[in-house]
Automatic annotation (TrEMBL), chain B:
Cellular localization per UniProt: Cell membrane
PANTHER family for the chain: ABC TRANSPORTER PERMEASE PROTEIN, BRANCHED-CHAIN AMINO ACID TRANSPORT SYSTEM PERMEASE PROTEIN LIVH
Keywords attached to this entry: Amino-acid transport, Cell membrane, Membrane, Transmembrane, Transmembrane helix, Transport
Molecular-function annotations in GO: transmembrane transporter activity
Family: Belongs to the binding-protein-dependent transport system permease family. LivHM subfamily.
Protein name: Amino acid/amide ABC transporter membrane protein 1 (HAAT family)
GO BP: any one term: amino acid transport
UniProt topology in membrane: Multi-pass membrane protein
Membrane-spanning parts: 6-28, 40-58, 64-83, 99-120, 147-164, 185-218, 230-254, 266-283
One cellular component term from this protein's GO annotations in UniProt: plasma membrane
Superkingdom of the source species: Bacteria
Amino acid sequence: MSEDAAWTKPLDIGYEACLPKAGLKVVEHIRFSPDTTDFTPIFNKMEAAKPDVIVTGISHVGVQPTVQWKNQQVPIPMFGISAQALSPSFWGDTNGAAEGVPSLAVATPDVAVTPKTKPFATAFKAKFGTPPAYTGYTAYDEVYIIAEAIQRAGSTDPDKMVAELEKTDFEGTIGKIQFYGKNDEFTHGIKSGPGAVTGLVFQWQNGKQITVWPKAIAEGKLKFPDFVKLSQ
Amino acid sequence: MLALQILIDGFAISALYALGATGFTLIFGVSGVLNLSHGAIMVAAAVAAWAAASVLHLDIYTGALFGVGVALIVSFATYFAVVKPIQNSTRIPNEEKEIFVLTGTLLWGIMIQELIAYFFTNNAKTVLPIVEGVVDIFGNRTPRNNIFTALVCCLVIGLLWLLVNRTRTGKAVLAASMNPRGVTLLGLELTQIYIVVWGIYGILAGIAGVLLGMFLGVSSYSVGPLTASAFSIVVLGGLGSVSGSLIAAFVVGYLETITAYMISPAYRTIPALLLLVFVMYIRPQGLLGRR
């Protein structure tokens, strides 16, 4: 279930290619207008297709489908990208309907993805009153990466900076950051995987974003509200 | 099965539209004002009710009352700060006052919308439902709060009917909507009637806003669509006709629900707008309009 926006087009292509590889059959592909306010017809249609899980790609919307999912007690768990769920204010905005909603992030305030994560989140909260949103962690790391590249290059000449940026080996708040090379399939993308940046899966539980994956830093296990019927 | 689902889901949203549009049409009937800040007042009520619970940590009922109270205040502010100065102005020619009121309330609505977005972000906010849980109606899982919403809407509209038809104040309001000059000849102060009407309107819009916040949730983006839907319901029903607005609210509510279920949720509002254009062609005064 994705909102009809430019960013979900490649996402949905990825979902449709990867979900079957993970052993999941796609029974229905729903793209809805981002200005949808009433999700009742969409949830009813989905329920009729009897899926085990709703894989989401939502960002412009978030509060409304989440609250209606809870109020209507839609018995299907949600999983995937729910960008608004990354915001620390999501629990309050949904009056706690976020309970059981997972999403993907690079870091959360309470988990030491690296030794730098928690001190940064604490300092951020002390200064601004709320924990950082997802962009806070990456922006923080990026400033250091760029500053160090400039120092190493001794110049702000773009070509010299790029040469130094390619050599980046920096432990940030989101993991160990290195970039793929110029001729790689993912030119200059952040290296992902074990030992690099893995990202994490968290789930809203009792007002907190509890990390449930990867195991090394997990604080808890996936847990869904009572109205959600898990197939296994 | 699908028909029953449409019947149930459509009722709650229609009842909510009816409540929102009633106050809107009442003001037009009495003072000839089309209040384009309507959506903003509804959203202000819902966001206030949300903030009362989430920021001030008040309980659900106090929060809901707080929301309605804020709508009442904003409604009076709309009248005293925007509408009344234009109506009383000697520098604006009388025949241009309507367009000034339209523009003034539209801008006022945008100001409220931007203030909400500035202080509470554009993210949608939801009000905690007063009744939780779901009931099974012939195999359709229905949130209890939808039934509650529909009941409150019907009750409030019923009370409004009693107020207008059975009390002295209400009769004065009704008389003012029929013949303002006649009312002043009877020794009633039109300004006082206006204040009463804006008060009633504020309460109605506030209740509708808070209920909408519980039912679907609202954000500052909802301001435009809410004003537009009230506007089209009121025009469809006949400007100034309360019963026309009630019928139109159910026509629009069900037309939207049927479209969302049978065609696609993305086209939800389109058939109602086409109907509006069609009605304008064959019956410009609306379903039950007098003028």
